[in-house]
Amino acid sequence: MPELPEVESLATFLRERAVGHAFVRADITAISALKTYDPPISAMVGLLIDGVERHGKFLDISAQGVHLVIHLARAGWLRWKEEQSTGLVRPGKGPIALRTVLDDGAGFDLTEAGTQKKLAVYVVRDVAEVPGIARLGPDPFTLSIEDFGDILKRAGRVQLKGVLRNQSVIAGIGNAYSDEILHVAKMSPFKPASNLSADELQTLYDAMRETLQDAVDRSAGLAVQDLKSEKKSGLRVHGRKGQKCPVCGDIVREVSFADSSLQYCATCQTGGKPLADRRMSKLLK
Q1: pTM recorded for the entire structure
Q2: Which of 24, 25, 164, 274 has the fewest CB atoms within 10 Å, measured from its CB?
Q3: Which fold is adopted by the domain 4-134?
Q4: What is the mean pLDDT of the chain?
Q5: Domain residue extents for the chain
């Protein structure tokens, strides 16, 4: 799933390539992806793109008071083309959910792999009309350590992993980067959020900001098609079950849940003690 660093990189790319150009086509080909009806998607045609912003994991393309808001979900992606096809895409056929064409002939497709179609597109006049944006917590890059400490205290016995990836608590961090942040901080994903000392709070706060900023910096200047591979190559433990921890050389372990999993290093994070597999747990949903 694209998280804060990838969406930030997409926003930066579109600011450089799309701002100042007008939509000449905006075709929804997966009806289930479009979550709004007023304004219609056709309202984007003819409008000049004047800004691109990120809200958590949401991408916000603004055009003269109308916003095309995109959430790529687990398997969605944005594919940029310098010479976009002008052919019609048959609804319900293939991975393309939205096709756009700009006035210079470039454009992008939104695609989604797999059978679980959760990619979401909104056309709104105010981004606060998007329920997911209205519920977002603060952005990690604007969050002070004092406010971060208050968030963890209010979370009580909720596990750190669950707090970090809860979009209503902190916006933009998902399953992958929460694993990475906790590995950098050398903390168990199951550690209760309110059980941190002042030094541990500082360590986790620094790990969160540095891990995310490092991922953003690594993606700077990359073409859109290279962002996924850059994310994967830069991960230390997430998605690396059975491989060696890059810090200590221990084997990266995994805990499975009903619909997700986490990866960690027992030596670095849990004092050498493997965590129990909680496949049926609902704690980290």
Answers
A1: 0.92
A2: 274
A3: N-terminal domain of MutM-like DNA repair proteins (3.20.190)
A4: 93
A5: 4-134, 145-269
